[in-house]
Recover the amino acids of this structure.
């Protein structure tokens, strides 16, 4: 029996009710991965035995009449940037090939506690640097809508796993759009929660002040179910917010936008966006207005500097975060012939272990933090960050949520932007502001372009008002009644 | 400000412990120049009186109690090490004291 | 160049950076133990090994210690202070950045007064900030076990992440020929304060207190500072003094020969008493400091700071002055007390009922001698203030004489129990019962008729021989003064 097109809420309910077993569900998705992943390359590791063992344990617990967790028996794919005890965690890099962490990320532990079946680790741009998943050391992930195209990134593997129904749910991380942009490219729902809403412990950091893990799902309600399990305060993460998780599940269950003010960000519309993207965005706004929402225009004048600020802050933090990969305590070591110095071995290892985009960003960040340049670059970027946060504050005084297209284009062909970093960076033009300000964002699929490629719409909400995303997203999903199936 | 020289790129590579090839030095010099020219735009914003924002969350005094927590055994700590000797991480010779 | 000549030609300016390891139970950013001397890599976790995905969380007790140190050094406590990353690659630093503080330290702008030969020098404190220690490397192969010439190194990360406070002075000017002593006195005074705060073991030999000494010379004491060198890791009080003295002499030689001083770090060699060059300013790392995004700022409210201020002990110098006056000791006696680490012991002994003179007599006399003989520091001898006070009381009331008191000390140090238990077990009480003594007195008179007659004839000095006889027959357990009184009374009727 195939469960590929059963959503996660129904899978959890069916397993809890005994309509089918967790093992049947796990087997179905494992079979699907086996059939499709040679082509898609969404997974870096598939944990067949672990998944089946967890599924059996769930079935046994149910048979004993024990209370089951909210995700009991539901397969979840995890981006390979989150540590998983006993399962390899590579971050898509040769640097960590073969590393098996001795500990779970808090998100991973939360999944296990909720009864989720961790089915495997998904492909990604190396250390989450990229917007196409082409920067993986283990080959690109392909878009199930057109295998000649990229799936977005950096969480391309997790997006594809859900889009291709290799898993009903998956987890990605989003530093500048790395959940929302691939969600748009593959026609699924992807959410970046409020910064601090989901623990970063065990998330191998790209840019610590921007990174946030979040859910992928085929429906808004499924995403809410996973979001609620992932989120919550964690004393091991000093930036974790000590407050109740926003009521996302309830919001997704009652997506009523009557009277909701939806702000359209003036600076994120128009010429820079592909024609079909603009058209579907407008149609979606019309549908929301029909459902009772009030559409208003807001202006965020400093957003035009967001990309520049982001590409200073991110590489700066990344250059420091990635310094720990030095061939001393774990991971790759190259050139240790007994004669070379530790400095040479570190440099040879990092040269061999990191791909071109990682090196590019390390160099950029090293430059931006250098004495003499700090004030003009990193310092100024932080001030721009303040101005962008102020823009959001002003916008949210006029609107309850903001709406933009998620990405300027639909999925582009593999290889098109690999050596054109600026063009690649522009993919995140609409998603980056939310990361800089720490607010939540969601991409919802809204249709296909003329070539049959998915288009996404992004909602953003104030910090810790993640539930508003689920109201707006749920309403949009209901209004346009479109389910994406590649 | 950009127009980053090949020598500067070599200096950055040394700071970042990257043994870049000659081709890479040239290539990155070119690309960093393009990127830096683009990001230099942040300087166009008048922001003298603006507080820098290093973090999106306004928390302070996030402390841990001074209480022992279980850590790793030496075996676990050393399990992923490229080289081990005498319960320590074996590393190539160090040229200078810090 | 000899030191005296160097000082006659140049004016030294010092700057001292002291790193102190806090004695918290756990590390600065994780829950690993800080115990010294554990087996290698047994006090580590994902955080202090910088395993991917791990995150630091600040030890609140370490922050409180930092604030208390700042207050004890008369610093202003920053209402808002932040951690920053100091980026440089080094194998004993797992993250290849050190979490430290940069432009927003926890404490700034204080001072510490130190006395050298009766003069007080006010040492300005620039800042005190929080950071973390590194691991330790063993250098293998090569001839010396030193870093140079080694084939490879072995790293133990037990020490990585132990909380450190770095205390940096302002430039210390106007010390002239006293510069080396002032440097030493500053580190000693700082150590005393840190010890009295109870925030650190302050054991220089174990590296829990380490000093870097910046030295520069200038020909004109009113002129601009000369180029400085920074001598790293000077790890005893004596070495601080020697290293500063050596560096003044060395720089004077260079300058007198028309050379220039290179701004560099230098390494101190205990064995040769010399420094050798390390890294020059040109080779220095660009540390690329930036605010640590994994940690929230520290906001020290006035209320919190005042709560901590209320926990500060009396400053050691002030306390010493107060006790000296109270006890009536001379400067010289007080210095002996401090040098013997007997201040607390004497204070406690007096609290337990002894007189100041009595407490000093035992601790600086008999017990100091035992301490010297055994190589065990006075505070570590297995005898406490209560025991010493009891011995002194027994002597004062006439139950023991000094010789017997020393036997009681023997017993206590040998683990035979309390003073009273040793007295009882060894049968050491003086015979104070006159009836019993009179028997012995009469025996002595009967046994020495010639001597007795001399006394009767008015030669009272001759009574000494009879006292000796009584003491002998009582095996020393009599109060010699009382015996003499009884003998004289018997023989002269007085």
């Amino acid at each position: 029996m195939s469960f590929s097109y059963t959503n996660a809420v129904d899978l959890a309910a069916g397993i809890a009710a005994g309509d089918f077993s967790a093992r049947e569900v796990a087997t179905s998705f494992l079979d699907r991965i086996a059939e499709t992943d040679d082509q898609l390359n969404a997974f870096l590791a598939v944990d067949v035995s672990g998944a089946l063992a967890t599924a059996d344990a769930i079935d046994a617990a149910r048979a004993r009449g024990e209370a089951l967790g909210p995700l009991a028996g539901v397969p979840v794919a995890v981006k390979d940037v989150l540590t998983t005890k006993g399962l390899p965690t590579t971050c898509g890099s040769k640097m960590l090939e073969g590393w098996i962490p001795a500990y779970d990320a808090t998100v991973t532990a939360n999944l296990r506690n909720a009864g989720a079946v961790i089915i495997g680790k998904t492909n990604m741009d190396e250390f989450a640097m990229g917007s196409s998943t082409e920067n993986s050391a283990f080959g690109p992930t392909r878009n199930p809508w057109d295998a000649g195209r990229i799936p977005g990134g950096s969480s391309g593997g997790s997006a594809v796993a859900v889009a291709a129904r290799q898993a009903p749910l998956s987890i990605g991380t989003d530093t500048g759009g790395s959940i929302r942009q691939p969600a748009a490219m593959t026609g699924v729902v992807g959410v970046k929660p409020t910064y601090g809403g989901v623990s970063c412990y065990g998330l191998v950091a790209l840019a610590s002040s921007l990174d946030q893990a979040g859910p992928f799902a085929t429906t808004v309600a499924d995403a809410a179910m996973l979001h609620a399990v992932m989120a919550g305060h964690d004393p091991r993460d000093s930036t974790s917010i000590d407050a109740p998780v926003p009521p996302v599940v309830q919001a997704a269950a009652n997506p009523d936008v009557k009277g909701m003010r939806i702000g359209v960000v003036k600076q994120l519309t128009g010429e820079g966006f592909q024609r079909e993207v603009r058209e579907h965005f407008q149609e979606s706004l019309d549908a929301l207005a029909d459902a009772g929402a009030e559409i208003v225009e807001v202006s965020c004048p400093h957003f035009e500097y967001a990309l520049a600020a982001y590409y200073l802050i991110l590489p700066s933090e990344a250059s420091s975060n990635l310094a720990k990969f030095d061939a001393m305590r774990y991971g790759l070591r190259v050139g240790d012939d007994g004669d070379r110095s530790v400095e040479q071995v570190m440099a040879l290892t990092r040269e061999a272990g990191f791909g071109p985009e990682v090196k590019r960003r390390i160099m950029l960040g090293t430059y931006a933090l250098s004495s003499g340049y700090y004030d003009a670059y990193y310092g100024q970027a932080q001030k721009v960050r303040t101005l962008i946060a102020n823009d959001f504050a002003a916008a949210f005084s006029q609107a309850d949520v903001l709406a933009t297209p998620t990405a300027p284009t639909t999925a582009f062909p593999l290889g098109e932007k690999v050596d054109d970093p600026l063009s690649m960076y522009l993919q995140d033009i609409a998603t980056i502001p939310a990361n800089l300000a720490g607010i939540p964002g969601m991409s919802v699929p809204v249709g296909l372009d003329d070539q049959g490629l998915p288009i996404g719409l992004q909602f953003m909400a104030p910090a810790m008002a993640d539930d508003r995303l689920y109201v707006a997203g749920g309403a949009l999903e209901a209004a346009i009644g479109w389910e994406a199936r590649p | 400000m950009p127009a980053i020289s090949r020598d500067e790129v070599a200096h950055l590579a040394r700071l970042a412990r990257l043994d870049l090839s000659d081709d890479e030095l040239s290539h990155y010099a070119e690309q960093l120049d393009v990127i830096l020219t683009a990001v230099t735009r942040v300087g166009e914003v008048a922001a003298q009186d603006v507080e820098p924002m290093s973090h999106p969350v306004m928390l302070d005094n996030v402390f841990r109690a001074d209480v022992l927590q279980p850590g790793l055994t030496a075996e676990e700590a050393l399990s992923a090490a490229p080289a081990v000797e005498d319960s320590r991480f074996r590393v190539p010779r160090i040229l200078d004291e810090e | 160049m000899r030191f005296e000549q160097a000082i006659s030609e140049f004016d030294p300016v010092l700057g001292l950076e002291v790193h102190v390891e806090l004695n918290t139970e756990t590390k600065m950013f994780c829950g690993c133990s800080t115990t010294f001397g554990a087996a290698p890599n047994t006090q580590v976790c994902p955080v202090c090994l910088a395993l991917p995905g791990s995150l630091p969380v600040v030890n609140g007790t370490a922050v409180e210690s930092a604030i208390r140190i700042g207050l004890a050094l008369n610093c202003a406590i920053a209402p808002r202070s932040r951690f920053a990353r100091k980026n440089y690659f080094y194998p004993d630093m797992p993250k290849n950045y050190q979490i430290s503080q940069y432009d927003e330290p926890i404490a700034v702008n204080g001072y510490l007064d130190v006395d050298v030969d009766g003069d007080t020098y006010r040492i300005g404190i620039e800042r005190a900030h929080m950071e973390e220690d590194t691991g330790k490397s063993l250098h293998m192969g090569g001839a010396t076990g030193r870093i140079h010439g080694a084939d490879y190194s072995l790293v133990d990360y037990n020490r990585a992440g132990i909380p450190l406070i770095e205390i940096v002075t302002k430039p210390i000017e106007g010390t002239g020929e006293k510069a080396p002593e002032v440097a030493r006195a500053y580190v000693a005074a700082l150590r005393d304060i840190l010890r009295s705060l109870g925030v650190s073991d302050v054991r220089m030999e174990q590296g829990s207190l380490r000093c870097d000494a910046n030295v520069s010379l200038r020909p004109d004491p009113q002129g601009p500072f000369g180029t400085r060198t920074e001598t790293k890791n000077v790890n005893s009080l004596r070495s601080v003094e020697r290293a500063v003295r050596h560096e003044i002499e060395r720089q004077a030689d260079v300058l007198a020969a028309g050379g220039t001083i290179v701004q560099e770090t230098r390494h101190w060699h205990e064995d040769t008493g010399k420094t050798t060059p390390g890294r020059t300013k040109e080779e220095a790392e660009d540390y690329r400091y930036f605010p640590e995004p994994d940690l929230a700022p520290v906001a020290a409210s006035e209320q919190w700071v005042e709560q901590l201020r209320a926990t500060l002990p009396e400053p050691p110098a002030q306390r010493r002055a107060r006790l000296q006056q109270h006890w009536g000791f001379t400067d010289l006696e007080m210095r002996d007390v401090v040098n013997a680490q007997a201040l607390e012991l004497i204070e406690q002994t007096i609290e337990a009922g002894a007189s100041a003179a009595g407490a000093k007599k035992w601790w600086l006399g008999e017990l100091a001698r035992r301490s010297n003989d055994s190589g065990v520091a006075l505070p570590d001898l297995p005898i406490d203030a209560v025991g010493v006070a009891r011995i002194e009381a027994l002597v004062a009331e006439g139950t023991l004489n000094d010789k017997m008191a020393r036997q009681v000390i023997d017993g206590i140090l040998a683990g035979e129990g309390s003073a009273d238990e040793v007295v009882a077990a060894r049968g050491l009480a003086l015979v104070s019962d006159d009836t019993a003594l009179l028997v012995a007195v009469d025996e002595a008179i009967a046994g020495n008729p010639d001597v007795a007659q001399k006394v009767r004839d008015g030669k009272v000095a001759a009574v000494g021989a009879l006292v000796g006889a009584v003491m002998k027959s009582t095996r020393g357990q009599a109060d010699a003064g009382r015996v003499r009184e009884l003998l004289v009374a018997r023989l002269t009727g007085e």
